[in-house]
Amino acid sequence: MRDFLRARVAQGMPTVPLPFDATAFPPRFRGRPVAVADLAGGDAADGQVIDAPSAGAQHGRLLPVFDRGACLFSPEETTAHVAFTCDHRMASSARAGLVPPESEFELIRPLQASMRRLFGRSLRLRSVAAGSCGGCESEMTALSNVVFDMARFGIQFVASPRHADGIVVTGAVSQTMREALRMTYDAVASPKIVIAVGACAATGGPFRASDQVNGGVPDDLPVDLWIPGCPPHPLTILDGLLRLLGRIEHAANDTALAARSETGVTEA
User: Fold this and answer.
1) Helical H runs in 166-251?
2) What is the rounded distance in angstroms from the CA atom of residue 204 to the CA atom of residue 172?
3) pLDDT 10s digits, 155-199
4) Quick one: which of 128, 178, 179, 197 has the most CB atoms within 10 Å?
């Protein structure tokens, strides 16, 4: 017992502190994609949006226009003009927010005050794996470990939609899971929230060309939070949730984090 206590004292507190700007990510972490240089030439149409980090025309010159929802954050998407920073803040309140102009991004708008009063300190979520490879679910499982400890913020996953305040959707939503997803959503009492996690939930991910998937969360399901990634880092998920609940405000350290992340471009 003495050896155990001695080891725990030596290990210290492993839980990630809030805010997360002091977190050190591994060298190969791929966060928010940015342009590293303007692109020249090409004939793309004005305002074109590309599914993954690539080029689109804007204001008479070619600039990268990123759809973070479709991005798989893979080495193949790293080019001479596209790089990934160490900025984990990528979630958005709207699907269009994942496709910002000229690599800019808008942080999440918190829920309305009445919703924050209901869910701000006690949020129960039902996870629906609607045709997923299992990667996003693994990252969400990590949210409950001692490092991220999602429960300290009052957020927990539950086994039944009857006990939930909302649902978390992962996967490309296969044809066989679409009705199950709808039934789960209907079983959650109103008011409720919907969170789409991962590239598959946003666009279908690498499976979207298949006629067996819906291409992400159906349009008739109102999504309150879009979290990109393949899979997203646990801190990306947790940051999105806490901003949605109003637990993290737009602060001065957001600007400092963004500036620092631009210098931490990861390797391919």
Assistant:
1) 178-187, 199-203, 234-244
2) 4
3) 999 999 999 999 999 999 999 999 999 999 999 999 999 999 999
4) 197
